[in-house]
Amino acid sequence: MIEKLKKNKFLVTVTLIYGILFITNTDKAVLSVKNSGYYIKEMLIIMPVVFLLTSLIEAWVPKKMIVKHLGDNSGLKGYFISLLLGSVSAGPIYAAFPVCKTLLNKGASISNIVVILSAWAVIKVPMLANEAKFLGLKFMFIRWIFTTISIIIMAYIISKLVKREDIPMEEEKIEEDTILLRREYCMGCGLCEKMSPQYFKVENKKAKVLNKNISYKNKKKVKEVQDKCPAKAIKVG
Hints:
- The chain is 64% helix and 6% strand.
- By secondary structure, it is mainly alpha-helical.
- The strands form 2 sheets. A two-stranded antiparallel sheet has the order 1-4. A two-stranded antiparallel ribbon has the order 2-3.
- Helix 5 (75-87) runs parallel beside helix 7 (110-122) and helix 8 packs across helix 9.
- The longest helix has 35 residues, at 26-60.
- The model has no long low-confidence stretch (mean pLDDT 86).
C-alpha cells in the first residue's frame, strides 16, 4: 500500500488538496471538480487517438529514418522538420508528450524534441491563422520569426544541459557483463565491428553479436562502442 502511494505521489497530493478544499471552501472545490472533469473528458477523447498514433510510429516508422531526419546529426534539416511537425499538429500540448517520447525512444535528438514541443505549443498553423485575424498579419509574422529563433536557441541550450540518460526511458533488463543488441534499430554502419571485431560483425547490413559475454579487460572498449553507436542499438550491462 505504501509503495503504491509513493509511486502515485502526484495523484495523492491532488486528492489531499481537493479534500482540504472541500472542508475549507466547498463552492471552490465543486468548481474545481467541474473544471477537472472537463479536462479529463477531453483527455479521454483525445488520448486514445494519440496512443494509436504512437503505436503506428513505433510499428511503421523505422528507427533509421528517425535517426537520419531527427537524430543528433540531423542539423538544420532536423530543426526544419521538427518545426513543421509541431506547427501542423492538432490537439492540446499534453497530446505531444507521448508522441515525443516515442520519437525520443526511436533516436530523435533532445533538441529536436524541444523544437516539436515548443512549436506545438506556440506556433501551430491554426493558432497563427487566428493571430493574424485578430492582431494582423504583420504582428503574426514578426512574432513567428522571433519565436522560431527563440525556440531553436532554447533547444540548443537544453540539449547541452539535459542528456539522454537524464530522461527516464523504457529499457530492457540486461545481465551484468553482457551485450544486448537491438537489431531492429541497427543502421549497419559497421562502427561496432571496426571498434570491436571480437564482439561484433555486420552481415546483410545488420550487426550481430559474436559473443554476448564481455571479459573484464574488454568492457571499457565495448562501452565505447555503446556510446558511439549512432542508432543507440547497443546496450552493455
